[in-house]
Protein backbone atom coordinates (compact mmCIF):
# COMPACT_ATOMS: atom_id res chain seq x y z
CA UNK A 1 0.00 0.00 0.00
CA UNK A 2 1.42 3.38 -0.97
CA UNK A 3 1.07 6.54 1.10
CA UNK A 4 -2.01 7.69 -0.81
CA UNK A 5 -3.88 4.38 -1.12
CA UNK A 6 -6.63 3.27 1.24
CA UNK A 7 -6.32 -0.11 2.98
CA UNK A 8 -8.45 -3.04 1.82
CA UNK A 9 -11.72 -3.88 3.57
CA UNK A 10 -11.06 -5.59 6.89
CA UNK A 11 -13.21 -6.22 9.96
CA UNK A 12 -15.64 -3.33 10.41
CA UNK A 13 -13.59 -1.05 8.17
CA UNK A 14 -14.85 -0.43 4.63
CA UNK A 15 -12.98 2.05 2.38
CA UNK A 16 -16.30 2.89 0.69
CA UNK A 17 -17.29 4.77 3.83
CA UNK A 18 -14.32 7.14 3.60
CA UNK A 19 -15.09 10.74 2.69
CA UNK A 20 -13.22 14.03 2.62
CA UNK A 21 -14.28 17.19 4.41
CA UNK A 22 -11.49 19.72 4.67
CA UNK A 23 -12.39 23.24 5.74
CA UNK A 24 -12.05 26.06 3.24
CA UNK A 25 -12.92 29.72 3.54
CA UNK A 26 -12.71 32.66 1.18
CA UNK A 27 -13.06 36.42 1.62
CA UNK A 28 -12.51 39.11 -1.02
CA UNK A 29 -13.06 42.80 -1.51
CA UNK A 30 -15.51 43.10 -4.41
CA UNK A 31 -13.70 46.18 -5.72
CA UNK A 32 -10.34 44.44 -5.74
CA UNK A 33 -8.98 46.84 -3.12
CA UNK A 34 -6.10 45.42 -1.14
CA UNK A 35 -6.01 45.81 2.65
CA UNK A 36 -4.66 44.10 5.73
CA UNK A 37 -8.26 43.79 6.93
CA UNK A 38 -8.96 41.14 4.29
CA UNK A 39 -5.97 39.12 5.51
CA UNK A 40 -7.19 39.41 9.10
CA UNK A 41 -10.71 38.35 8.10
CA UNK A 42 -9.32 35.31 6.31
CA UNK A 43 -7.39 34.34 9.42
CA UNK A 44 -10.55 34.82 11.49
CA UNK A 45 -12.38 32.36 9.24
CA UNK A 46 -9.49 29.95 9.76
CA UNK A 47 -9.72 30.39 13.53
CA UNK A 48 -13.46 29.71 13.37
CA UNK A 49 -12.69 26.31 11.82
CA UNK A 50 -10.56 25.24 14.78
CA UNK A 51 -13.28 23.07 16.34
CA UNK A 52 -13.40 20.89 13.20
CA UNK A 53 -9.69 20.23 12.92
CA UNK A 54 -7.97 17.21 14.37
CA UNK A 55 -5.23 17.23 16.99
CA UNK A 56 -2.84 14.50 17.99
CA UNK A 57 -1.95 13.18 21.42
CA UNK A 58 -0.61 16.68 22.02
CA UNK A 59 -3.41 19.25 21.82
CA UNK A 60 -0.98 21.62 20.07
CA UNK A 61 -0.36 19.16 17.24
CA UNK A 62 -2.58 20.11 14.31
CA UNK A 63 -3.14 18.34 11.01
CA UNK A 64 -2.26 21.44 9.01
CA UNK A 65 -3.59 24.86 8.09
CA UNK A 66 -2.67 27.72 5.79
CA UNK A 67 -3.66 30.83 3.88
CA UNK A 68 -3.27 32.02 0.28
CA UNK A 69 -3.15 35.78 -0.38
CA UNK A 70 -2.10 38.09 -3.17
CA UNK A 71 1.56 39.01 -3.34
CA UNK A 72 2.33 41.40 -0.43
CA UNK A 73 4.37 43.70 -2.65
CA UNK A 74 5.09 46.36 0.00
CA UNK A 75 6.47 43.82 2.48
CA UNK A 76 8.55 41.91 -0.06
CA UNK A 77 9.89 45.15 -1.59
CA UNK A 78 10.87 46.58 1.79
CA UNK A 79 12.53 43.34 2.86
CA UNK A 80 14.41 43.09 -0.44
CA UNK A 81 15.78 46.60 0.06
CA UNK A 82 17.26 45.47 3.38
CA UNK A 83 19.16 42.89 1.33
CA UNK A 84 20.29 45.58 -1.15
CA UNK A 85 17.92 44.32 -3.85
CA UNK A 86 15.73 46.65 -5.91
CA UNK A 87 12.76 44.67 -7.16
CA UNK A 88 11.19 45.07 -10.61
CA UNK A 89 7.62 46.35 -10.81
CA UNK A 90 4.91 44.17 -9.32
CA UNK A 91 4.13 41.23 -11.58
CA UNK A 92 7.66 41.05 -12.95
CA UNK A 93 9.09 39.22 -9.96
CA UNK A 94 8.01 36.12 -8.06
CA UNK A 95 8.32 35.12 -4.44
CA UNK A 96 8.08 31.49 -3.42
CA UNK A 97 7.79 29.94 0.03
CA UNK A 98 10.08 26.93 0.40
CA UNK A 99 10.44 24.32 3.15
CA UNK A 100 14.07 23.22 3.39
CA UNK A 101 15.63 20.23 5.19
CA UNK A 102 17.03 20.85 8.67
CA UNK A 103 20.54 19.76 7.74
CA UNK A 104 22.76 22.62 6.55
CA UNK A 105 24.45 20.31 4.04
CA UNK A 106 21.12 19.17 2.60
CA UNK A 107 19.86 22.73 2.53
CA UNK A 108 22.92 23.90 0.59
CA UNK A 109 22.39 21.11 -1.94
CA UNK A 110 18.78 22.18 -2.44
CA UNK A 111 19.66 25.86 -2.77
CA UNK A 112 22.24 25.13 -5.47
CA UNK A 113 19.76 23.06 -7.47
CA UNK A 114 17.18 25.86 -7.21
CA UNK A 115 19.51 28.65 -8.34
CA UNK A 116 20.91 26.50 -11.18
CA UNK A 117 17.46 25.63 -12.53
CA UNK A 118 16.27 29.25 -12.32
CA UNK A 119 19.26 30.26 -14.45
CA UNK A 120 18.75 27.37 -16.89
CA UNK A 121 15.15 28.48 -17.43
CA UNK A 122 16.27 32.00 -18.35
CA UNK A 123 15.04 33.72 -15.19
CA UNK A 124 17.06 35.75 -12.66
CA UNK A 125 17.65 34.63 -9.10
CA UNK A 126 17.64 37.72 -6.88
CA UNK A 127 17.92 36.64 -3.25
CA UNK A 128 16.86 34.43 -0.38
CA UNK A 129 14.80 35.76 2.49
CA UNK A 130 14.67 33.99 5.86
CA UNK A 131 11.00 33.88 6.83
CA UNK A 132 10.50 35.00 10.45
CA UNK A 133 8.74 32.28 12.44
CA UNK A 134 7.76 31.69 16.05
CA UNK A 135 7.60 28.02 17.05
CA UNK A 136 7.27 28.62 20.79
CA UNK A 137 3.69 27.32 20.88
CA UNK A 138 3.75 24.40 18.47
CA UNK A 139 3.89 20.76 19.52
CA UNK A 140 7.20 18.99 20.09
CA UNK A 141 6.30 16.50 17.35
CA UNK A 142 5.86 19.38 14.90
CA UNK A 143 9.15 20.94 16.01
CA UNK A 144 10.91 17.65 15.32
CA UNK A 145 9.73 17.85 11.68
CA UNK A 146 9.94 21.63 11.37
CA UNK A 147 11.69 22.70 8.17
CA UNK A 148 13.95 25.67 7.62
CA UNK A 149 11.65 28.14 5.85
CA UNK A 150 12.86 30.60 3.26
CA UNK A 151 11.44 32.69 0.45
CA UNK A 152 13.11 32.78 -2.92
CA UNK A 153 12.74 35.94 -5.02
CA UNK A 154 13.03 35.63 -8.80
CA UNK A 155 12.93 38.31 -11.51
CA UNK A 156 11.43 37.45 -14.87
CA UNK A 157 13.83 36.93 -17.76
CA UNK A 158 14.21 39.09 -20.85
CA UNK A 159 12.43 36.54 -23.04
CA UNK A 160 9.26 36.54 -20.92
CA UNK A 161 6.38 38.08 -22.87
CA UNK A 162 3.88 38.77 -20.10
CA UNK A 163 2.88 37.70 -16.59
CA UNK A 164 1.03 34.59 -17.78
CA UNK A 165 4.17 33.51 -19.61
CA UNK A 166 6.14 34.16 -16.40
CA UNK A 167 3.71 32.01 -14.40
CA UNK A 168 4.18 29.12 -16.82
CA UNK A 169 7.94 29.47 -16.46
CA UNK A 170 7.62 29.41 -12.68
CA UNK A 171 5.54 26.23 -12.90
CA UNK A 172 8.26 24.54 -14.97
CA UNK A 173 10.94 25.76 -12.55
CA UNK A 174 9.01 24.42 -9.59
CA UNK A 175 8.45 21.00 -11.14
CA UNK A 176 12.06 20.68 -12.26
CA UNK A 177 13.26 21.59 -8.76
CA UNK A 178 10.93 19.07 -7.11
CA UNK A 179 12.01 16.23 -9.40
CA UNK A 180 15.72 17.06 -9.13
CA UNK A 181 15.69 17.23 -5.33
CA UNK A 182 13.63 14.06 -5.06
CA UNK A 183 16.43 12.23 -6.89
CA UNK A 184 18.86 13.24 -4.13
CA UNK A 185 17.04 10.90 -1.73
CA UNK A 186 17.74 13.15 1.25
CA UNK A 187 17.23 11.53 4.65
CA UNK A 188 16.14 14.46 6.78
CA UNK A 189 13.41 14.95 9.44
CA UNK A 190 12.09 17.93 7.47
CA UNK A 191 11.38 17.12 3.86
CA UNK A 192 11.85 19.58 1.00
CA UNK A 193 8.64 21.14 -0.29
CA UNK A 194 7.50 24.22 -2.23
CA UNK A 195 4.11 25.45 -0.95
CA UNK A 196 3.96 28.24 -3.54
CA UNK A 197 5.96 29.90 -6.31
CA UNK A 198 4.14 32.68 -8.14
CA UNK A 199 4.23 36.33 -9.17
CA UNK A 200 0.58 36.72 -8.17
CA UNK A 201 0.01 34.90 -4.89
CA UNK A 202 1.85 33.52 -1.90
CA UNK A 203 1.02 30.80 0.63
CA UNK A 204 1.80 30.56 4.33
CA UNK A 205 1.10 27.11 5.77
CA UNK A 206 2.37 24.30 7.95
CA UNK A 207 1.53 21.56 10.43
CA UNK A 208 -0.21 24.10 12.63
CA UNK A 209 -3.46 24.62 14.45
CA UNK A 210 -5.82 26.93 12.59
CA UNK A 211 -5.43 29.72 15.13
CA UNK A 212 -1.64 29.41 15.14
CA UNK A 213 -0.93 30.32 11.52
CA UNK A 214 -0.43 34.04 12.11
CA UNK A 215 1.37 33.35 15.39
CA UNK A 216 3.89 31.15 13.64
CA UNK A 217 4.24 33.44 10.62
CA UNK A 218 4.70 36.99 11.95
CA UNK A 219 4.47 38.32 8.37
CA UNK A 220 0.72 37.80 8.55
CA UNK A 221 0.42 40.30 11.41
CA UNK A 222 2.41 42.91 9.52
CA UNK A 223 0.26 45.82 8.30
CA UNK A 224 2.32 45.87 5.08
CA UNK A 225 0.79 42.50 4.14
CA UNK A 226 -2.28 43.45 2.12
CA UNK A 227 -4.51 41.53 -0.23
CA UNK A 228 -7.88 41.83 -1.94
CA UNK A 229 -8.59 38.19 -1.18
CA UNK A 230 -7.75 35.45 1.26
CA UNK A 231 -8.31 31.73 0.72
CA UNK A 232 -7.81 29.61 3.84
CA UNK A 233 -7.63 25.88 4.44
CA UNK A 234 -7.65 23.64 7.46
CA UNK A 235 -7.17 19.92 7.17
CA UNK A 236 -9.92 17.96 8.89
CA UNK A 237 -9.37 14.57 10.47
CA UNK A 238 -11.71 12.82 8.02
CA UNK A 239 -9.32 13.37 5.14
CA UNK A 240 -7.04 10.43 5.80
CA UNK A 241 -6.45 7.40 7.98
CA UNK A 242 -2.80 7.09 6.96
CA UNK A 243 -0.63 8.11 9.91
CA UNK A 244 2.36 8.91 7.71
CA UNK A 245 0.25 11.22 5.57
CA UNK A 246 -1.37 12.87 8.60
CA UNK A 247 2.02 13.68 10.10
CA UNK A 248 3.32 15.23 6.91
CA UNK A 249 4.54 18.75 7.51
CA UNK A 250 3.62 19.73 4.00
CA UNK A 251 -0.17 19.51 3.82
CA UNK A 252 -1.33 21.12 0.54
CA UNK A 253 -3.26 24.35 0.97
CA UNK A 254 -5.71 23.48 -1.77
CA UNK A 255 -6.24 19.85 -2.69
CA UNK A 256 -8.70 18.30 -5.18
CA UNK A 257 -11.08 16.95 -2.57
CA UNK A 258 -14.70 17.80 -1.98
CA UNK A 259 -15.71 19.92 0.98
CA UNK A 260 -18.85 21.06 2.73
CA UNK A 261 -20.64 23.78 0.82
CA UNK A 262 -20.00 27.39 1.82
CA UNK A 263 -22.59 30.14 1.95
CA UNK A 264 -21.32 33.18 0.09
CA UNK A 265 -22.83 36.59 0.73
CA UNK A 266 -22.10 40.22 0.06
CA UNK A 267 -21.36 42.26 3.16
CA UNK A 268 -22.77 45.79 2.91
CA UNK A 269 -20.64 46.82 5.88
CA UNK A 270 -17.18 46.32 4.37
CA UNK A 271 -18.15 45.51 0.77
CA UNK A 272 -16.42 42.16 1.05
CA UNK A 273 -17.29 38.76 -0.31
CA UNK A 274 -17.61 36.58 2.78
CA UNK A 275 -17.64 32.79 2.86
CA UNK A 276 -19.02 30.90 5.86
CA UNK A 277 -19.41 27.14 6.48
CA UNK A 278 -22.69 25.26 6.68
CA UNK A 279 -23.55 21.60 7.12
CA UNK A 280 -25.04 21.18 3.66
CA UNK A 281 -23.86 18.99 0.80
CA UNK A 282 -20.49 18.87 -0.97
CA UNK A 283 -19.06 20.88 -3.85
CA UNK A 284 -15.71 20.93 -5.61
CA UNK A 285 -13.46 23.71 -4.36
CA UNK A 286 -12.69 24.57 -7.97
CA UNK A 287 -15.60 27.01 -7.62
CA UNK A 288 -13.85 28.93 -4.85
CA UNK A 289 -10.57 28.84 -6.71
CA UNK A 290 -12.21 30.19 -9.85
CA UNK A 291 -13.80 32.97 -7.84
CA UNK A 292 -10.48 33.73 -6.16
CA UNK A 293 -8.57 33.99 -9.40
CA UNK A 294 -11.27 36.17 -10.92
CA UNK A 295 -10.47 38.58 -8.11
CA UNK A 296 -6.76 38.28 -8.84
CA UNK A 297 -6.82 38.64 -12.61
CA UNK A 298 -9.66 41.18 -12.80
CA UNK A 299 -8.70 44.11 -10.62
CA UNK A 300 -12.36 45.03 -10.10
CA UNK A 301 -14.66 42.02 -9.89
CA UNK A 302 -17.56 44.34 -9.11
CA UNK A 303 -17.63 45.33 -12.79
CA UNK A 304 -20.34 42.74 -13.28
CA UNK A 305 -21.95 42.11 -9.87
CA UNK A 306 -25.24 41.03 -11.42
CA UNK A 307 -23.47 38.37 -13.46
CA UNK A 308 -21.51 37.20 -10.40
CA UNK A 309 -24.72 36.96 -8.40
CA UNK A 310 -26.32 34.94 -11.19
CA UNK A 311 -23.34 32.58 -11.26
CA UNK A 312 -23.62 32.04 -7.51
CA UNK A 313 -27.34 31.29 -7.71
CA UNK A 314 -26.91 28.90 -10.64
CA UNK A 315 -24.03 27.14 -8.91
CA UNK A 316 -25.96 26.67 -5.68
CA UNK A 317 -29.09 25.48 -7.48
CA UNK A 318 -26.99 22.97 -9.41
CA UNK A 319 -25.42 21.68 -6.19
CA UNK A 320 -28.73 20.98 -4.53
CA UNK A 321 -30.27 19.11 -7.49
Written description of the protein model:
With 321 residues, the chain is α+β, with helices and mostly antiparallel strands. Helix content is 32%, strand content 24%. The protein has nine helices and ten strands. The chain is globular. The model is unreliable at 239-286 and 303-321 (pLDDT under 50).
Characterize this entry briefly.
Helices cover 32% and strands 24% of the residues. By secondary structure, it is α+β, with helices and mostly antiparallel strands. Strands 7-2-8-1-10-9 form a 6-stranded antiparallel beta sheet, sandwiched between helices.
Q: Keywords for this structure?
A:
alpha+beta, 321 residues, 9 helices, globular
Sheet with the most strands? Answer: 6 strands, antiparallel
Strand content: 15-25%
- The count of DSSP E runs of length 2 or more, i.e. the number of strands, is 10
Low-confidence segments, ≥5 residues, pLDDT <50? 239-286, 303-321
Structural class: alpha+beta
Strands in their spatial order, largest beta sheet: 7-2-8-1-10-9
The number of helical segments is: 9
Radius of gyration, in Å, reads 20 Å
Oligomeric status = single chain
From the spread of the alpha carbons, the general shape counts as: globular
Intertermini distance:
37 Å
User: What series of H and E elements makes up the topology?
Assistant: EHEHEHEHEHEEHEHEEHH
Specify the helix fraction band: 25-40%
User: Which whole number gives the mean pLDDT?
Assistant: 77
Amino acid sequence: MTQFERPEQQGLYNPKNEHDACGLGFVANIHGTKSHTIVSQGLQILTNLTHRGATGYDSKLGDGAGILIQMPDTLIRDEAKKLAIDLPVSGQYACGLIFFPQSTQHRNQCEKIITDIIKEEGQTFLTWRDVPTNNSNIADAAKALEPNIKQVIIAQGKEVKDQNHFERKLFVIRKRIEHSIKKLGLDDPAQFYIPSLSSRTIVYKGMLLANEVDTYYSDLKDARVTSALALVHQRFSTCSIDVKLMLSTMVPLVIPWSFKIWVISFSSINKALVVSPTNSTCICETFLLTLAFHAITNKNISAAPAMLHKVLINMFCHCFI
